[in-house]
Amino acid sequence: MSAAAITARILRHANAYFSAIESASLEGRFAREDGTQVSPIYPTMLLICETPTHFVAEFLGASPKFDEIRAVHRSLPSLAVALGQFPTSHSVHSLMYGGRSTGCGLSHLALLSERGHETFRARYREFPDLHQTSLLYGGSLLPDEAFHPLGFTDELQDFWLSDVMMVAEWHGFVRARYFQAGFILHRSMSSSQLQRHLAARYPVGTDTTLLTPSTDDNRTLLIRAANFASLAVTDKVGETTITKFLESNSSMLTIALGVSRIIPQPSLKWIEGNPDPEERAIQPDFLLIDDKGDAHLCEVKLPLLSRNDLTTGKHKRRRFVTPVVEGIAQLANYREYLSFDSHRQLLAKEYGVSVRDPRSILIVGSAENYDGEIARQAQRMLTPFELIDYDTLRVMYLAGSGYVPGVQGVS
Questions:
Q1: Is there a single domain that holds both residue 189 and residue 262?
Q2: Strands 268-269 and 281-282
């Protein structure tokens, strides 16, 4: 089955599935077992990761309104990468699924190791609130062995995940990979087989498993943050995937960065000041608009999971590595663009925004490679800009949104 075929099949089923839920909600028939009316929370994005042996399909996002689900396809080098595992072959698993296993799945569960438990709580302070049930691996682990909660052979036929947090641990680092609704499917599965699985597991009009697992505002904030954390530990997932997620879940940026709204990927034509005839326009990942109507710049780069430091050189020659430098250079180019009055007038005409003292924000790296003091040393040589790593953005979003730790909603 091709990526296009699996995407079309899942979207067809999902649209019918969520439309039925929306109709039930509008008619006042969407309620808890005690009869209390609730509002469903819908996913906004379908991510299809294609590996040499399997497809990993998952729904992301949390919106009170059912709208078109954006499908994003990525090719990844292995199933291990798609699951957010560390790059090592020395692994221990809580659960291993081998042979041609089919029909298995997990729901409403966190899987982690005793060795990595405290590190998990330090990096992801709010995520222990997500699940009331956890499976803690307490077995022995050698210093060079990684803990990866679930293991799968290349022959695995399918596996189904609903509201499952998998916490990998290695060399003192942890990665939280959350699936609000996901499926691992062998590439040999036919379209008709997939349809039979979807119809049996998620029957239209009688099931709600594919919904974002929340009917509570507080928990919804946490689900959205967990989605973002998952993208931040999936190597090679691509900048486009992350920016599309942020576009369809814009509160991640507006709340975390203290702005009112975002303008995704505006194409802004050069009118003056550009000596390069091949560069006809700039296209920042996001313009951030504050409550005064002023525009600010935001560029998104990858978490750079293969690196343990965003800089190179010792103290006196500390400087950022190339991917970070490229992001800084882009922001500098955008700032120069905005320095021309003709371009400011263009923004005012096209988007109704003004430009006075724009912030320049670069989102890159994670807790695995970001050190505030070392980053400060590397910034000494540069025009001022703000560097925010993925974990800090997630924490800022939850702090600014009013998320209350420890308060359990009904899922």
A1: no
A2: antiparallel
Q: Are 150 and 83 in contact (CB under 8 A)?
A: yes
Q: Looking at the 3D structure of the chain, how many domains does it have?
A: 2
pTM: 0.88
Q: Other C-beta atoms within 10 Å of 39: how many? A: 12
What residue ranges of the chain have pLDDT lower than 70?
A: 408-411
pLDDT at 411: 47
How far is Cα 199 from Cα 207, in angstroms, rounded to an integer? 10
The amino acid sitting at 278 is E
**E-assigned strand segments in 117-275:** 134-137, 146-147, 150-152, 158-170, 173-179, 181-186, 261-264, 268-269
The residues near 341 (Cβ < 8 Å, ≥ 6 apart) are none
**Between the CA of residue 319 and those of 192, 323, 363, 382, what are the distances in Å?**
54, 12, 17, 10
Report CA-CA distances (Å) from 353 to 51, 290, 296.
43, 9, 10
CATH number at residue 258: 3.40.1350
**Structure token pair of residue 386:** 């703000």
Query: Looking at the domain assignment, is residue 264 inside a domain?
Result: yes
Q: Is residue 75 part of a domain?
A: yes
Same domain, 282 and 388: yes
Tens-place pLDDT, residues 309-366 = 998 888 888 889 999 999 999 999 999 999 999 999 999 999 999 999 999 999 999 9
CB count, 10 Å around CB of 199? 12
Q: Are residues 42 and 166 in the same domain?
A: yes
Query: Of 205, 236, 267, which residue is a domain's last?
Result: 236
- Residue 334 CA neighbour count, 13 Å, CB half: 30
Is residue 354 within 8 A of residue 293, CB to CB? The reply is: yes
Check whether residue 220 and residue 254 sit in a common domain: no
- Structural domain that includes position 344: 250-398
Helices and strands of the chain, counted as H and E runs: 11, 21
